[in-house]
Design goal:
Order of helices and strands: HHH
Pfam families: DUF1016_N
Strand content: under 5%
Protein name: DUF1016 family protein
Length: about 140
């Protein structure tokens, strides 16, 4: 069971500094605390954004792999969006439109990576342009 702080330690919104604290010292102290909070919020936000990007990337990859493996049509996206939306109602970004966008970003990034690797092999003489056309 948590102990509640004594009334003398509790901080109230809009409270004036107690009479025993120098006003200039208090302003410096509160400014320092505000700066620390602001500085901590930025990296925390970046960390959350990084995790969400990785999550969406993985969702897109997993959906594509499953669609390919089980020959699922595009309609599965609508069902996934509805089921995920019910499971995580507080979370944004799980609509059919967003899931489709994640898939497109995943595909484009994958193709860019693949093309970059091919161009690197081509530059080293380890691949030929004819290999770009699977019919040849």
């Amino acid at each position: 069971m948590r102990k509640r702080p004594s009334k003398s330690l509790s901080i109230r919104r809009g409270a004036k500094p107690t009479t025993g604290i120098d006003a200039r010292s208090y302003l410096t102290f509160i400014s320092d605390l505000k700066r620390k909070i602001a500085e901590a919020r930025h990296p925390a936000g970046l960390s959350v954004n990084r995790e969400l990007i990785l999550l969406y990337w993985n969702i897109g990859r997993d959906i594509l792999a499953r669609q390919d493996r089980e020959e699922l049509g595009a309609k599965i996206i609508n069902r996934l969006a509805a089921d995920l939306g019910r499971a995580f109602p507080e979370m944004t970004g799980l609509s059919a439109r967003n899931l489709t966008n994640r898939l497109l970003h995943f595909i484009l990034a994958w193709l860019r990576e693949l093309l970059g690797l091919f161009l690197e092999l081509l530059g080293r003489g380890l691949a030929s342009p004819a290999q770009l056309n699977p019919a040849s």
